[in-house]
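Before relying on records like the one below, remember that each one covers exactly one chain. Contacts with other chains, cofactors or solvent are not represented anywhere in the record.
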Amino acid sequence: MAICWVTAQLAVLRVRAVRALGEAVVPRRSVGVVRTGLGLAALGGGVWGLMAIGGSTGSDAADTAVSMVMVLMVAVALLAP
């Protein structure tokens, strides 16, 4: 544990705070039109699939639910910044 603390302190001494903060600044990029369109399409497909699950029963509903979770995760990934 002590060796980790010593190593961290040495690293702090080598890097100036202003330089570290300057290198950490990254300009924000907007989400592109294509990515937004694909994300909204995936979101719409996920919502449509969830409504389709309402009419299913048994293992069909379970299989569809797993697929819809994956589709909604892709939609969130596409729409996230």
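The two ends are 37 Å apart (CA to CA).
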